[in-house]
Design a protein that fits this description.
The chain is α+β, with helices and mostly antiparallel strands. It contains 2 helices and 7 strands; from the N terminus they run βαββββββα. The chain has a 7-stranded antiparallel β-sheet with strand order 1-7-6-5-4-3-2, covered by helices on one side. Strand 4 and strand 5 form a beta hairpin. It is globular and about 45 Å long.
């Protein structure tokens, strides 16, 4: 299983950071590996909300349909997607801090089928993708005004 985790300090209160990131379809705005995002269910985001992302992975566009599987408003959201090749599970935790919010982003990618044979390559690629996404997220959260 490939794993990526990072913590960012965001100079914004947790509820505002949560509101911006709970719309997972907006990942295309901060993650350079996401080509497009669409919310498939009506707003607001709730348990069971679904999002379709098209991500670039190992040179291919991969459509992923994420579902919100855990939700504590203002504090935590978990989304999960599963295809024939992978299971993706992302958890975002929002912790109040003296300077705003400590955002902990934890992502796991579990290869399935034949892709399991290439797990070390997947893990290396996932680490690179995670670093790029974290840099984009840091810039986006710092520069984009709260909505």
């Amino acid at each position: 299983m490939a794993h990526y985790s990072t913590a960012l300090i965001v100079p914004t209160p947790p509820d505002q950071v949560f509101d911006r990131l709970s719309r997972f379809d907006r990942a295309e705005e901060w993650d350079p590996g996401v080509r497009e995002g669409t919310m498939l269910t009506p707003a607001p985001v709730a348990l069971g909300s679904r999002f379709r992302l098209v991500a670039r992975f190992l040179g291919r566009d991969v459509p992923l349909e994420y579902e919100v599987v855990e939700l504590t408003p203002g504090r935590r959201i978990a989304v999960r997607a599963e295809t024939e090749a992978v299971v993706s599970h992302d958890v975002l935790t929002f912790v109040p801090g003296s300077d705003g919010t400590v955002l902990v982003y934890d992502a796991r990618l579990e290869p399935k089928g034949l892709l399991r044979l290439f797990a070390p390559v997947v893990a290396l690629a996932f680490r690179h993708i995670g670093d790029r996404a974290a840099a984009g997220l840091r810039a986006w959260l710092t520069l984009v005004p709260a909505r």
